[in-house]
Each structure stands twice: as structure tokens, then as C-alpha cells.
């Protein structure tokens, strides 16, 4: 990548953590997660204080705006980040406005088409959230909303990097969010993807499915020199990305190709990776794809490199998971600490991964790999580099 | 940063007035619309007509209608490009598709169905990403796989992003465009917003009172210039730039002065390395709604200044309706077909120009005119705007008449 693009603002909203400090504290605590009824939803109190004129936003818009406001505050840019024409937004969502479409359809299936709720209807486009955020923060640069399944968060990040590198914007606000709905949960359950225990224990004997949760996560991206010039705290550099698609039967290979592309773009050897933030979620088929993909892409280093699985703590947050993992990876590079995977049940037989468990480890990584696998054909990988002075 | 030139080598069309690009070209010359009376969505709403597609028997059963529309267009685009018959290009070829409503029909069926087995199957179609996945899977493509959901600019943004991927050497070939099906959701929603006309769609006319919905898909094959030349491909046009920008103004209304659209057009021209003087024609969004058309004309004047008076523009919405996420791709294709034939299709039903839209709207029989450079612009809910710039590539390819 010719221009050095860095992360200079972090914002996240999860059911039991608001803001990156609370999130990091929760993730780095390690050990067993306190039990909570699954699935987890973000408390409504999180949205208090949002602008009154935006009361018509749906839940996706509200959590996305909350995370974005936190990221912009953290970046030190104030309420309106710089030249509005040079500041863009890219947001991703796995299921997008599906829950809102469900709400609108319920109304018209019950009462008739003429009784559709126009307030709900205006949110039945997935980019409604992006539109609201751009209004609140006056973001008039490149504007994109992606709905590429569970990888949409990393795809939004990749788009943001490209826009800055290609000179279309000076700064990009990138993020992703997903909300839960009754039909979505029913569908996930029908597929047999949800954990009966209500836990997520990737790569272990206890692994029996996903624990799902809502989440939103936003990052502020800008060129390194610009961030330093204005005295911003720089968490990490985005050194390389990879994006691939392929048949469902070849998800492992698709991920491997995305990882190889990201490592190549970062101009490093796989052996230089200091830690992997894995997208494993506790679904055995899904985790097996990632396991094979990592081994195919990293070779012998796949068994050596420390691997941590954020979804064991936060659950499967769909598109938000990739962005959350980048946020955590950036904090790992910034602090030198790498949190372990929650819980420490016995590893699955034959699993050749250096799984970190328990509380945070001081590993001082220089390079971090983040993976996202869609389960519907796409895979993305991001390589981060430390920027500590 | 080294960049590559990108060309359009395949066109694929699914629309209510045409099931191929050849049919679309003919329909535009003959001023043939696919808008018909419909009772598919009951009689409760304001609108009585729509652009419904009659798909031929499809082997795409088992996927949502929106994927069926996309697969039909993708198949033609690949056949037209000549790639279908060749090998060794699929591994790195990507798919970038846009949609507004996505698989809303499957969601409706999912919600109505009482069969657990049916719901289990339908759930696989519910993610918006199923459309791009279905296309990639059908043709065995292993490159970048992406779905854009930006309401009415979805497919324009998908095409712009695909252009970037090839321009910067990250992919040699991309299938890009979009699809949307007619749904109860759209019909009811735009009706309660009073955005649909009870009569006909008349873009830029002072009597305009709303849009007509349509369904369809438009997909183009984009290819790196030398990749196309090496295999002797027919080149329809060069896609030379794009821009995207937000209005940051209102969730459903455009900025009255077309603020974001103006920025998108300026960015597209800058990326193309072209000046406003070089643009011969602009295909506008032209929805026929009271707010959209004047805002677009305002943006046009801000970008093109004095040139605006002699710059022909049109809207293709009256031919196949507002196809939402597919409109950007379908209308780009319609404009490229016109460029190949030295013909600007007229804006149907625009008879008495609104003074607020006082620009050179092509009407009547259409206009015979050589077009070397054209722009296609689209705007959407959420204040999203995209502009695409394409030009004739005289040194390569042949023009089909």
C-alpha cells in the first residue's frame, strides 16, 4: 500500500460494553465469561442523548450512530470531522435492514398494504443508517453501504482504505453493525447454528455452535502523516487487505487466498505475523473452514502463531465481528498485550493451533492478522502493523 | 500509483421491455415501454402500473426472484463478452452486485410459510449477499465477492467499485451491476410515501407526480483493457471514472441543490481526467418525482455551468420503471447502447418541460448524435449519489448497428 493508512479513532457498542476501553477491559479479563441469557441485545440506555430529530431511526441506525459518535470523539476530531467533502463513510452489515423489513412486512401482511408505516419504510433500505450518520456528522465524501454477509465490516474497512489511497477522501469513517430479530434468530436456529449451551467455545471439545449478539463498531481511518500532524493517537496501521469469494464447498480455500493476498499486500512473510484474531465462532463446520484456511495460507506457522478468538467473549456479531476484531487487534498492537480466548475447556482433538486462553499475554506483536469468513462465499483478511513510537 | 484502463466487454439486461441488450437497444429506438397495468399488488395502493419482467423458463428455480433476474442478465453479459467460452479467467474474476430490496420476496414467503423445512431452505436466500453469491456460484468465479445495498445507487456504486478493483490491478475481470424484483414491500412503501404516480412517469415534465416501479437487472463485464485486447474481445466502451458522495441532508429527500450529486459528478470527472467540455451527454436519474428532478438539474448546472444549455440529458425510467438497485446498471447499459448507435433515447412522456428543469431534455423521437463521452448519475435514499463516466473507445472494438 503506497500511503500509510492508520486507525486514529475507535468506537464500539456491545451488550455489556460501550466504548473501546470497556470492551478491551472485558476482552482482556479472560477466563470464563459470566453467564447471561442468549442472545444478547444492547440496552436501550446506550442510545440516550442521540439527537432528537433522529428519533425515527431503526435499531441498526441507532447502534451504528452510537458507535460512530464514540469513534469520532476518540479520534479528537470533534463533532464534525474536518473538511466534510473530504471525509467519507463506509458501513457494512450482514443482515442489514432485514429486521426492519420484517417489521414493515408484518404490518402490511396483517393490515393491508395501505397501512404500511412510512416511518418504518424509510428505514427499509440498509443505507438509511449510513445516511443518518452522514447527516449527524456532516460526512459528505465517499458514501457506501455494503451488505456482503458476515464479512461486510472488513469489506467496508477495505473500501475506506482504498478511498484514501486513491485520493478520493482524506479521511474515512468505517464501521459495521448488525441487529437481531425474531425471524433472524429462528432462521439461525433452523440451520442448527446456535449453541444449545448458550456459549461459544471455538476449537474446543465444548464447541457446539454460536452464541449471537448485537454489536456495532466504527473506526476512523486517515493517512499516517495527517493523523500525526494533528496530534491524534495512532493505534495501528492498516498494512494489507485481501478479499476473495468462492463456492460454499471451498470456504477454507477462499479464506486461505484472502489471507495470502493480505499478507502479500503487507509485504511480509507469514512467519512475521505475531498473532491471529480469528473469526472462529464455535460452529464446528465454520471453525473447520477457518482452521484449514489458516493452515493452507500460513503453512507451519499456523500451528505456532498465537491465536485468539474474540467471539468466545462477544458472541457472533456477524458483520460487526470483523471490525471489532480489528479494533481489538489495534489495541493489542498499541498496548503490547494480547487477550486470550474466554474459557479454557480442553482443545478439540487434533487441533494444531496455539490458542491463547485466559487473561492477557504480553506478546508485543508487530503484525496482526484479522480474519472474517462469511459462510456464504466470501472471505476477508486484514494485516495490521503496530505504530508505537 | 499505476492504474489500468477498464473497458466494458459484456452487457446483460433483464427488463420489462427487453430480455437482452439487443432487445433493449431496439426498444429504446422504437420508444417501447414495458410499463403495464398490474393487479399483482392488490388494489389498495395509489399506483396501478409497473414494469414487470416475464422471465423465460429458468433453470434458477430455488433461488429468490431477484437472483433469477440477476442470473439472466449475468448469463447474457458473459455470453456477450465472449468469456463464457474461454478458460483460465474465472479464478480471479469477481462479482460486485447491488440491490435495494434484495430477497424481500423470500422474506415474505419465510414469514408466511408454516413449513419448517421450507423456512429452513428460504433462510439461505435471506441475506442480501445471496444474489452475488448465486451469480458467482453459477459461473464458478473465485475473485472478490461483494453486495452493495445503497437503495437506488446500488448498482452504480457496485460498478464504480468494480472499476477501482480493475483499475488498481486487484482483479482482471469483474461482473458488476445489480438487480431488484417487484415486491409488496416496495409497492406498499412507496405508495404510502406518495412517491408513485397514479398515471404515468413524466420525468422533468411540469405535470410529473411520481415514479412507476419496475423490476430487472443490469450486469456488465468489466475488463482490463489489455486483457480484453489480447483475447480479441469486442469493446462496448471504456469506463473511465466514477464518484460517490453523500448529501448529509435528509433520509429520503435529495438536497434541493443536488449537493452530493454535484460532488459525485466532479469526482467522476476528475478520476476520468476529462473536463466538462468533453462530456456529450448525461443520463440522469430522472425519477419523475417533484423533488428529484429539479435537484438533479440544479446539480447539473453547478457542474457544467454555461455548457448545460447545450448538454443533452435524458431519463430512461419511463421505459422499464424505477428498478431501484438495478437502475444504475440498466441505465448505464441503455446509454452505452445509445452511444454505440449515435442515438440519444428520448425521455418518454416528457412533453411540457418544468421551468425548474430547464435543461436540454431529449424528448420526442430522440436525437441522432455522436456521443464520445457520457455520464450516468443516480441518487438515492440516505442521500447517496453516484456518477459514472464512460467513453467510446475508437481504437478498439467494433460498433454493432
Structural features:
heterodimer, A: about 400 residues, alpha/beta, twelve-stranded mixed β-sheet, two-stranded antiparallel sheet, 13 helices, B: about 400 residues, ten-stranded mixed β-sheet, 12 helices, 14 strands, disordered C terminus
Describe how the helices and strands are arranged:
The complex is a heterodimer of chains A (389) and B (401).
Chain A: E1 5-14, E2 17-18, H1 20-29, H2 59-75, E3 87-92, H3 98-111, H4 118-121, H5 128-137, E4 143-146, H6 152-165, E5 171-178, H7 182-190, E6 215-223, H8 224-229, E7 236-245, H9 251-265, E8 275-277, H10 284-298, H11 301-304, E9 306-308, H12 311-314, H13 319-335, E10 337-338, E11 354-355, E12 361-362, E13 367-373, E14 378-386
Parallel strand pairs in A: 3-4, 3-5, 8-9, 8-13, 9-11
Antiparallel strand pairs in A: 1-2, 1-6, 1-7, 5-6, 7-14, 10-12, 13-14
Chain B: E1 6-14, H1 21-30, E2 36-37, E3 49-50, H2 65-81, E4 94-98, H3 104-112, H4 116-123, H5 130-139, E5 145-148, H6 154-167, E6 173-180, H7 184-192, E7 216-224, H8 225-230, E8 237-246, H9 259-272, E9 281-283, H10 292-304, E10 313-314, H11 317-320, H12 327-340, E11 343-344, E12 367-368, E13 373-380, E14 384-391
The main β sheet of chain B shows up as: 10 strands, mixed
**Cα distance, first to last residue of chain B?**
38 Å
> How many helices of chain A?
13
H and E string of chain B: EHEEHEHHHEHEHEHEHEHEHHEEEE
Number of helical runs of chain B? 12
Q: How confident is the prediction overall: mean pLDDT of chain B?
A: 94
Q: Determine the fraction of residues in helical runs of chain A and give it as a percent range.
A: 25-40%
Straight-line distance between termini of chain A: 21 Å
